[in-house]
Design brief:
45% of the residues lie in helices and 20% in strands. It has 152 residues and is an alpha+beta fold. A hairpin with a 7-residue loop joins β1 and β2. The longest helix is centred in the middle third of the chain and has 30 residues.
């Protein structure tokens, strides 16, 4: 039984590593580290109890000692940016067909989108520039782009 004990710990480490890839919370990575330490103990000593104790101690030590600074580092180095349709909110678009509260089309980021204006706004004429307020499904909700006045 003890001859394959280190392989069992190695399998736990691989399983935890795969689970970490799907969660990215650095919890399973710490479990994987504990399992690797237990595999080393099991390979050297063949002790079930010793490898279980090393697994528990190493996992707790990694969770308390390594995980917090690693999370701080990841949060500091990962850029915060809007993705998918959230990245379109706040952008400007060009009206293609008249946009009212129920229908219209705009050119947004090089694509033609169905659009509607925010409630209470006037009809938006083709050629005018609008700002995307939100995306509802496949429809851009837009409003008049405020124009800045320059003094000359």
């Amino acid at each position: 039984m003890r001859d394959w004990l280190w392989l069992a710990w190695l399998a736990v480490a691989i399983g935890a590593g795969v689970a970490e890839v799907t969660t990215l919370h650095l919890i399973f990575a710490m479990v994987a580290g504990g399992a690797v330490a237990a595999a080393v103990v099991a390979l050297v000593t063949g002790s079930v109890g010793g490898s279980v104790l090393v697994f528990a101690a190493a996992t707790v030590a990694l969770l308390l000692g390594a995980r917090p600074p690693l999370l701080r580092y990841l949060r500091r180095t990962t850029p915060v940016s809007a993705m998918n349709v959230a990245a379109l909110v706040g952008r400007t678009a060009e009206v293609i067909t008249q946009v009212g509260e129920s229908s219209g089309t705009v050119r947004l980021s090089g694509e033609v989108w169905t659009a509607r204006s925010v409630p209470g706004s006037t009809l938006l004429e083709p050629g005018s520039t609008v700002r995307v307020v939100r995306i509802d499904g496949a429809t851009a909700v837009v409003e008049n782009e405020p124009h800045t006045l320059t003094s000359g």
